[in-house]
Amino acid sequence: MDTLRKLQFILCLCVALVSSCKPSYPPPPGFVEACYGGDVSKTLDGATPRFRMQLPASPDQWSDIARRFQDFGASHELKYFDTSVSDIDGLKMINVHLCSAKGIWLSADKRLWSGRSEPSPNVVPIDLYQYDTEMDWVLIAAELEKSFQDWPGGFQSQRPGSR
Q1: How does pLDDT run across 110-133, given as a tens digit for each residue?
Q2: Secondary structure in 3-state letters for the chain
Q3: Is 92 exposed, middle or buried (0-12, 13-18, 19+ CB in 10 A)?
Q4: How many CA atoms lie within 13 A of 5 on its CB side?
Q5: The CATH number of the domain where 112 resides is what?
Q6: Could you tell me if residue 15 is inside a domain?
Q7: Domain assignment of residue 118, yes or no
Q8: Quick check: 4 pLDDT over 90?
Q9: b/e string for 146-156 if b means 16 or more Cβ within 10 A?
Q10: Could you tell me which of 53, 33, 51, 52 has the C-alpha nearest to residue 43?
Q11: pLDDT band at 43 (very low <50, low <70, confident <90, very high)
C-alpha cells in the first residue's frame, strides 16, 4: 500500500506542476484570438508569410515603426498589440502586431541579444500571415507599403506566400 500511495502522490505532484506552468511573458488579452484564430497549430503551423517587408531601421527607429503600426491598425480596423521589451536578460526587441479575427496577422519582430552577433542588426522584418480568407491580404499589404513609402532608406518587399 505504501508504494501505491507514493505513486499517487508523485502523479498528483506531476499534474500540479504541469498545470501551474505558464509562460514567463504571456500574450496580452485578446492576442491569441485576434492574431491567429485561437489555435496557432491549426491556423499557422508551418505557414509561409503571404507578404514580407524589410525595413532598414536601427533600434532608435523602432518606436517610429511601432507608432506607424498603431496608426495603420487604427485606420484599417486591426487590433494593435505591443509586446516589445527594452532590456530583459540582454534582449532588446521590437515585437508589434496588427491583427484581425477575420484572418490577418501582421508582425514586426526583431530581436537583438547582447553579446551575440546578428547578420542584419539594422533590418526589421514585417510579415503578414493570412489564416482565414475573410480579409483581403493583398489590399492590406499594398496599403502597408503606402504607409511606409516615405521611410528613410526605403524598404524591400516580397510576396513569398502568394497563390
Answers
A1: 999 988 888 888 999 999 988 888
A2: CHHHHHHHHHHHHHHHHHHCCCCCCCCCCCHHHHHHCCCHHHHCCCCCCCEEEEEECCHHHHHHHHHHHHHHHHHCCCEEEECCEEEECCEEEEEEEEEECCCEEEEEEEEEECCCCCCCCCEEEEEEEECCCCCCHHHHHHHHHHHCCCCCCCCEEECCCCC
A3: middle
A4: 2
A5: 3.30.160.110
A6: no
A7: yes
A8: no
A9: eebeebeeebe
A10: 33
A11: low
Tally of domains in the chain? 1
pLDDT in tens, 62-97: 999 999 999 999 999 999 999 888 877 888 999 999
Sequence-distant (≥ 6) Cβ neighbours of residue 49 within 8 angstroms = 127, 128, 129, 160, 161
- Residue 58 placed within a domain: yes
Residues 6+ apart with CB under 8 A from 17: none
**Model confidence, pTM:** 0.77
Residue 23 domain-assigned? Answer: no
- What is the rounded CA–CA span in Å between residue 44 and residue 54? 21
How far, in Å, CA of 28 to CA of 26, rounded? 6
Spatial CA neighbour of 59 closest among 27, 99, 95: 95
**Cell numbers 494593435: residue:** 80
Instruction: Quote the domain boundaries for residue 79.
Output: 30-158
